[in-house]
Amino acid sequence: MKSPNARLVVDELRYEIDVLTKGTLVEVRNYNTPQANGQAKDLWTDDAGRKCGRYFVGPGEKIDIEKLTATELSRFAEDLANHAGIEVGFEPAGHPDGLHVLRIKNADFYFCADGGGYDGWGRYV
User: Fold this and answer.
1) Could you give the CA distance from residue 9 to residue 63 in angstroms, rounded to a whole number?
2) Do 15 and 114 form a contact (C-beta atoms < 8 A)?
3) What is the spatial distance between Cα 100 and Cα 119, in angstroms, rounded to a whole number?
4) What radius of gyration do the chain's Cα atoms show?
5) Cα separation of 110 and 37, whole Å?
6) Which pLDDT belongs to residue 25?
7) Start-to-end CA span in the chain (Å)
8) C-alpha dihedral over 50, 53, 59, 60, to 10 degrees?
9) Under a CB-based contact definition with an 8 Å cutoff, are residues 106 and 123 in contact?
10) CA distance to 31, 86, 113, 125, per residue, from 104 (Å)
């Protein structure tokens, strides 16, 4: 049986990387990251000129999907304000099992903090 140095598990919208060999550093390039008109400060450009999220994972580390999801939603809120003139409130979740909240015109839109996607909407009182 083969013994890998690292394992990447993709399960729906969840990604998990386990580094199995001491001293191994894994580079992850996420081309599914939305490309925001070339101004996205967190995107990296590869040798072919394609933009992507780029992360390095070493022994004992995992990609922080909660942080990535909050970052992307925050960028979306900024784009709505800057390009569509829509003021949006954004509240990141306080824990991985929580919900990030985008507030647009007194309606709350919920997104799973673990990267699981859109969870629905509701009006706050």
Assistant:
1) 11
2) no
3) 10
4) 17
5) 25
6) 78
7) 59
8) -160
9) yes
10) 28, 8, 18, 14
The Cα–Cα gap between 42 and 46 comes to: 13
Mean pLDDT of 63-80: 76
Amino acid letter, residue 30? N
Element (H, E) at 123: strand 117-123
Chain position carrying tokens 């101004």? 39
Q: Which amino acid, 92? A: P
Sheet containing 51-57: give its strands across.
26-30, 51-57, 43-45
- pLDDT for 32-55, tens place per residue? 765 544 555 567 788 888 877 777
User: Which tokens is 48 given?
Assistant: 């072919």
- Burial (0-12, 13-18, 19+ Cβ within 10 Å), 102: buried
